[in-house]
Specification:
The protein is mainly alpha-helical and 191 residues long. It is 63% helix and 10% strand. Helix 6 packs antiparallel against helix 7. It starts with a helix and ends in a 5-residue tail after the last strand.
Length: 191
């Protein structure tokens, strides 16, 4: 698949930054954190401002509770339009961990300015409102998420069945606080 094509591209040019960044993201999603970090760091040695490589190294730093490094990497990743909403959300999660709920809310607003229907940004804004004591904003965000489900902007299938698919709930933990994100889990098998 895609990983093989990226690896072939790197055989031709071992410093091809787009392939390094995308392969790092692929390896991170597969749980190969060490390999993802090696690929991302190689990409950053060539291009310090590469969005995918900065985002992946930010995720790794966040998993290791290296918040200053994570903040730095997500800050650079936010310069890349493709990674801006996700990086701003991660920065907001760090702000919540540090109990800076106002900053978390501001970062959620910036993420929503880039992607108005991003459920993670709405969840971040709701968490910041709840923790910051802003009941009106919390109700507004919860209403928006409910509206997105009703309008099929945020799709959650609750009836019927599909072979190889189940609904899941990803629990995102930020410091002492957790909130859920609906996810579809799929599996393919081959004989």
């Amino acid at each position: 698949g895609a990983a093989k094509l990226l690896a072939r591209a790197l055989e031709k040019d071992p410093c091809f930054v787009p392939a390094l960044g995308e392969l790092a993201a692929f390896e991170f999603r597969r749980g190969n954190v060490r390999r993802a970090e090696q690929l991302a760091e190689k990409a950053l040695a060539v291009d310090t401002y590469d969005g995918p490589a900065n985002f992946i190294t930010g995720e790794i730093a966040m998993d290791r509770v290296q918040m200053e490094r994570a903040r730095e990497r997500f800050g650079v990743a936010a310069l890349d339009a493709a990674y801006r909403p996700a990086a701003l959300i991660r920065l907001g999660m760090i702000a919540i961990r540090e109990k800076d709920y106002a900053l978390a809310g501001q970062l959620a607003e910036k993420a929503l300015a880039c992607s108005a229907y991003d459920p993670e940004a709405h969840q971040l804004k709701a968490a910041a409102a709840r923790l910051g004591g802003d009941a009106d904003e919390l109700l507004c965000r919860m209403a928006k998420l409910t509206e997105m489900i009703k309008e099929n902007t945020l799709l959650i299938s609750t009836e019927g069945s599909n072979v190889g698919q189940i609904n899941g709930l990803t629990v995102i933990t930020v410091g002492d606080y957790s909130f859920g994100k609906p996810s579809k889990i799929t599996a393919n098998t081959y004989i």
